[in-house]
Amino acid sequence: MKPIVCIYCEGTDTKVAVLTKEKGTLKILRVASLTMSHSLQQTSKHQTLNELDSPEPATSLSFDTLEEVASEPVSDTSDVGLLQSSLFGLKLNQCQFIPVITEPVINFHMYDGPRDNNRKKLLQLVANDIQTVKGITVDTDSLDVTELNDRAMLSVFIEGEIPCVHLVNLLANYNNKRYFKIPTIKTAELSLAYYVSKTNKFFPEDNTLIIYIGKEYSKLIFLEGQKLKHIGATLDIGTKNLHTYDVYFSKILLEMENGGIPKLDNIILCGEDRSENLILSFFGTFPEANVSELKFENFDTSLITEEDAKNLALFAVPISSAVEYFDELDKIHVGINFLPKYIQEHQKFLQFGWHSYAILPLLFGATFFFTFQILSSYREMKDLDFEIERITAQQQQNQALVAEIAPLEQRINSFDATQAILDSATAGAGTWNNAIVRISDFIERRRNFWLTRLETVSQDEVRINGYSLSRSVLTEFAQYNNTALLKFINYEPLREKSAFAYTINFKLSKDTVETR
Fold it and tell me: Which range marks the domain in which residue 486 is found?
């Protein structure tokens, strides 16, 4: 659980207690008693508001981070320096700060009007009653109520400056932060009364006085049984300006009369003075009362000095406030809590003014429009990517088909060429066949005519060489073939027989046979 820094400011006296909760046990991490300058107490609420609004005005839309450094300088480095020194070694950005306030920052008002189960309506009724009775306008966020022992309702409201809140913001600026987290603001009297009631068991008819003695002020708180009975006015006496204890006794008797308290059965002391002389003086004035010092047991004090552990009653107010806050987190107790609007707004990550709320619908509409356009474009791009992939795959398939068709096309082309060659060869073969048949027919009829050689002269012209025993046969062959032309004839006897060598050319493309 995050550490809680409780700061109690009263006059120039400031008490600090840092506590955390580990495994169900409250552990005290640090306690300190500081003396502040009067300038801290004189800070007006207007100045506090200005500091909270710095560096960005509250009416603007701000996206400041928690790490932002405030532009305004620290107004009182001596006070905040003392506080910073007392918290040295702690990770302040991981802590929560609870200011503890008392009079004159808060005021008490007995409310006797109608009640309502709706808390907001009840607070509004109390605020209206305060306006009517005291003439003070109170915001409901600066107002809270609690019941006393006789079921009377006590209202507590904030009026004026809150020095502790101002001090916490100075500390934040000192550490280059825009703010430190403030979950709530507690009241000293009611937190102290709750702690005493929790740690002590009284009879229902017992009247108990809790007296807190500070350096400049003192407080009187009365219990009846375990419940709050009466809160006395703050006494302007303390260890710095006290000359005799008789002043206390007269004030106590006056407050007993105001609160309708007939006697005192228990007196519990805490604060700056818990001396034996004070205890003996109370015994002398209230002999029937049990006078004791407020005890702080069941705390883990291993991290503080032995002297501080013995004097925890000196820090009764901040420790009691921390105990009450932790019990509220555990749903054990419901106490008085304040958190004015200007503090809530200051602690928001996004700070909105009226015009910011006015443009929120436009921002939403623009966001929706651009988101829709982006998603539509993204879907269209996805569809186009899918189409590109499909076309690319089809192109690859087509290229594969083309690669398979190319050799087939070459084979088809070569087949056509082969077919043409075969066709031409077939046609030529027929022509040659006819020519040879005719020549063979002529030779068969003329037994004195034969060939020794046959060759082509051109594409459609043939030359034959041979011998003949008669010249008339050569003339007859030339007549037998219309295209035959006798190129050469020479007498060459063969084996003592007359013979003639010849050379004849004739055409193949035309019908060479003479029609008889």
Answer: 446-507
